[in-house]
Amino acid sequence: EQQLSYFSLHQTALKPACVVRPSTSIQIGQIFGLSDTCELTFAVRGGGHMAWGGASSVNAPGFTIDLGNFRDIEYDPETELVTFGAGLRWGDVYDYLSTYNRTTRGGRAMDVGVGGFLLGVHSYKIIVASGDALLVSENSYADLFWVLKMGGSNFGIVIEFTMTTRPNFDVWGGIQLYKIEALSAVTDAQVKLAVNLGKDVKDYIGMAFLGNMVWVHRIRIDNLPEEIASPEYLMSDSIRVRPIHDVYKEVTGDPLAQPAYHEWHTLSLTPDSTFAMQLFDKAKEMFGSKEGWSLGLQPLPGHLFKDNDDPVLSMLCIDPHLLLFMSSNPDVPLRKLVDWTEKQTPHVKPFIYLNYASGDQNVYRGTDLKRFWKVKHKYDSLNFFGQHWAGGFKLPSLLHRDESEL
What we know:
By secondary structure, the chain is of the alpha+beta class. The protein has ten helices and 19 strands. Strands 11, 12, 13, 14, 15, 16, 17, 18 and 19 form a nine-stranded antiparallel beta sheet that branches. A five-stranded antiparallel beta sheet has the order 4-5-9-7-8. The protein has a three-stranded parallel beta sheet with strand order 1-3-2, with no helix packed on it. Strand 12 and strand 13 form a beta hairpin. Residues about 400-405 have low confidence and may be disordered.
């Protein structure tokens, strides 16, 4: 039953020797000791939503650590902070906070595990290689707090998050479906938004090219979003005033978010309508009549985070980005399109978004690797997680690397 609940069927196909479900930090420390003594590898599962096989599952003789028992949640009205366990999904957190008319910055798909998609973290509770439980924040273990923004499977298992909250409010939001003839207009609107987000952060457009139609996810804070393409091409429109969590629920029910044999890749691009259309045309040329693939674009307002000492945001602080998301079934040669796109160097940025990346993409490209490894050696000097934790994203070696990647 546990294996069948993964988002990606690539993960479901793996067969661990067993699944262990700890309920305390002490039990996780004991599991670490057992793994070391018996020389066993393990995978760690939160929500089970990563797309590539082996990300959070493993074959025997390895075993899976399932964090599903860490489900406590508590809101503190005085500090306006919420603390919750790593076994929850975003729908659980949003539903709980709605009783206090509060919300927080998490994933937009309700069934995504909390550990893989969150912003505004105040502190983490993490079990490090020694088996000790550390409460990590900007003021306590600050070096570890910094690296956990892109921690991967290198520093420990986070079992609890404390996050800031804000008042809940209604937005204009929903999903629009356009005929393919609207693709150019929607792409222009997406690029314009990415460039101008520094002036107007009240609007959001996410788009996906689905072969014969254009899927658009829209949120606007203060008023009805403007039309982005001719109404004659609009096939359906669910935009209305409602709580933002209701918009998220609609995204969760979309076919793009359903379990399948997913192949995901991602890149970040310079906002350029002409190149985006070239990319869509190249995909149609490569894939022909094959079905089951999509390309998506989302705005990344990196220029809002200038001089930010953050492993992610510091890579985005020069100028606006467009986040490119590629998804397909295994029958589509998606890697060919990734390779072609990466060769278009004037249009491709270093940042690789971890949550959309495939297992063979270097998500640490462009980061301060020396700083990551310094923290790694401090808290896992024997590289326990490198030897025993299968899956997740690992820090690349500092040896034999091009200076441009360091």
